[in-house]
Amino acid sequence: MLFNSLIFILGFLPIVLLLYLGLEYFRKPLIAIIWLFIASLFFYAWWNWAYVLLLLVSIVGNYLLGKALTRWHKKALLIAGISANLLLIGYYKYHNFFLENLNYISGLQLPYADIFLPLGISFFTFQQIAFLIDIYSKQVQVTRFSSYALFISFFPQLIAGPIVHYQEIVPQMGQRRSLTVINQDLQIGLSIFLIGLFKKFAIADTLAIYASPIFAQADSLVVLDGMIAWRATLAYAFQIYFDFSGYSDMAIGLGRLFGLRLPLNFFSPYKALNISDFWRRWHITLSRFLRDYLYIPLGGNQKGLLRTAVNLLMVMFLGGLWHGAGWNFIIWGMLHGFYLACYQGFHNIRDYLPNLPTFIARMMAWTITFIAVCIAWVFFRTETLPGALHMLQTMFDFKHWYFALQTEIDIYLLLTGLITLFLPNTWQLMREYSPSITPAPKTTSYMPMLVNLHWRFNATWAIFAGLLLAIIAILMVNGQPTEFIYFQF
Q1: What 8-state DSSP symbol labels residue 112?
Q2: DSSP secondary-structure letter at 355?
Q3: DSSP-derived secondary structure for 382-393
């Protein structure tokens, strides 16, 4: 069941929300939590009932491990718990990838397993690993099972994040809201949800129509024009931007409807002036997980430049592998690790570089960062390594660039770029109403914001929401809902 489908918007969501609000109004918090847990299992089962049992086993097993860690506080228990979670994700996500590479290296012909990847396994597995580590470090105390079960299975963030911490979500459960607060949460949540839905339908899916055929041709090694290859790369860069941004908005908006504030997961990453800042803005909760549970334990940047570079490459290698069982994802992650290592090294030489005017320096920094990210997206998007290399070779084969205008896509890319760089993001738009439980990340200087809008409880914004809804309704009638890109991870 997709957030952008009619069955979800007109069926599942109203039923689940109305009954939840009724239970909340009549002061039945425990029943409300159980109801939301059952609804989340139904939401997950909509794709494949078989994997509901897997999700339940994972929830129950990690809850019992958490209780055991609370009681005995044994490192062996923690290692066993982390290992069990990694084995689970390893089997379902990487089993055939491992066999494929083993067969290639050894010349064997070991048979592949018929495995269907459970939706969201990367997210709920990492979330439970963080839970076990936090218990071992005595940052959290385990409460009742119903709260833990909902913390893992809560449907707005179950499939594609954000990756949340136990102490962020569970204390919010069961709190009785006044009618005034409920009314505000409904208006804010629906507004954020509509913005995300518009990003998905009107921008991301439109860009996919252009980008997907070109990347399919690249995977087939069809000869392409360099400008067409660049257009397709930019189209995909903006497609995944608005696809993931739209999903993140919808997740936060849906959480707000139920009185739960989720952490911020996306904050205008294409405004970043360096690659480190990009990762403070893109998939913020995954970056937080990798930093807190891998990069810092490895030593972070406290053991010299060479060790820092090795740590960054290792972390981003695993970050790429987390996204998908394929060499293209690994190369994408390693590229970002290389970018981050270069940025760390840049601190040692920048004092010897000439001082440039602020505007020129900012534009150079932004251009280098954006182009580097786009180059890495080529590996992320193509299905094969030869296809990625062919696409990149085409992009940088300047002898075969034909500067013919493709008016429709060129205008659309230009408008999308202007929206991305110079308009406020959803958090900035809703900032007076605390749209997320976490604050905006500490980032480098923004690109200039041409229009500084503020969402309000008034008729103007109600009309704007109605206009978005009308556009979305037209698009839904004339097209089919598509999966979010991050659902495959």
Answers
A1: P
A2: P
A3: -SSHHHHHHHHH
Residue 340's pLDDT is what?
96
Angstrom distance (rounded) from CA 35 to CA 15 = 11
The three-class DSSP label of residue 353 is coil
Q: Has residue 407 got a pLDDT over 90?
A: no
pTM of the model as a whole: 0.94
**59 vs 40: CA distance, rounded Å:** 13
End-to-end alpha carbon distance in the chain: 16
Q: Which long-range contacts (CB under 8 A, 24 or more apart) does 179-185 make?
A: 181/259, 182/21, 182/24, 182/259, 184/433, 184/457, 185/256, 185/257, 185/259
Cβ atoms of 290 and 318 within 8 Å: the answer is yes
Q: Which of 323, 336, 390, 400 is catalytic?
A: 323
Per-residue exposure over 373-394, b if at least 16 CB sit within 10 Å of its own CB, e if not? bbbbbbbbbbeeeebbbbbbeb
Side chain identity, residue 225: D
Average pLDDT score over the chain: 91
Q: List, in order, residues 6 or more apart from 259 with CB less than 8 Å away.
A: 24, 172, 175, 177, 181, 182, 185
Tokens, residue 329: 């994802």
At a CB cut-off of 8 Å and minimum separation 6, what does 303 contact? none
Angstrom distances, CA of residue 263 to CA of 165, 440, 472? 9, 10, 26
Cα torsion through 434, 437, 442, 445, rounded to 10: -30
Domain ranges in the chain? 6-178, 183-488
| Residue burial 408-442, b: 16+ Cβ < 10 Å; e: rest | ebeebbeebeeebbeebbbbbbbbebebbbbebbe
SS3 label, residue 266: strand
Cα separation, 156 vs 281, in Å, equals: 20
Q: Which positions ≥6 away from 283 have C-beta within 8 Å?
A: 161, 244, 265, 266
Q: Does residue 361 surpass a pLDDT of 80?
A: yes
**pLDDT, tens digit, 9 for 90 and up, residues 261-302:** 999 999 999 999 999 999 999 999 999 999 999 999 999 888
Tokens 């299905």 map to which residue? 383
pLDDT at residue number 352 = 64
- Sequence-separated contacts (24+) of 336-340 with Cβ below 8 Å: 336/275, 336/279, 336/376, 337/312, 337/313, 338/313, 339/275, 339/372, 339/376, 340/275, 340/276, 340/279, 340/312, 340/316
pLDDT category of residue 245 using cuts at 50, 70 and 90: very high
The identity of residue 487, as a single letter, is F
323 is catalytic: yes
Residue 468 has, within 13 A of its CA and on its CB side, a CA count of 19
